[in-house]
Amino acid sequence: MGNDNQVTLQIKSIGENVSLVRMMAGGFLYAYDLTLDVLDEIKIALSEAVSNSMIHGYNNAENRIVTVTMAVQNRNLTIQVQDDGVGIADIAQAMEPAFSTREEHMGLGFVFMQTFMDDIDVFSEPGKGTTVIMHKKLPASAQPVSDAG
Q1: What would the CATH number be for the domain defined by 5-137?
Q2: Number of helices and strands in the chain (H, E)
Q3: Which of 23, 91, 136, 148 has the maximum number of C-beta atoms within 10 A of its C-beta?
């Protein structure tokens, strides 16, 4: 198996697809023999990004599409989550702990993403959507293992 891989998944913006994305991440990263803790942290960051697209980007509208791309190149994981929703007017404010556009939410999504990933970039334009790109260097022990017979 090569050292590089990529997968893109487009999902309908419904809550049950968050677990589908988490399973995709687990399957995609299985070959890299990560610890359960590292894998859980990646899944949490990914879940938060996808949930933000659904809840804030699309205001819970269920007929929209969220695009998730995961890529590994030389043990560098990149996850991109993209929507074409309402966008974020003030990215710095949105990334502040406990800030949320919805009273019933804790506003910790970006905090989790920043905590569990090495780097996060957010690109957004009101009315045009948001792209969140997260990076994580996989441990040196995370060498691809092959299931190919």
Answers
A1: 3.30.565.10
A2: 4, 5
A3: 136
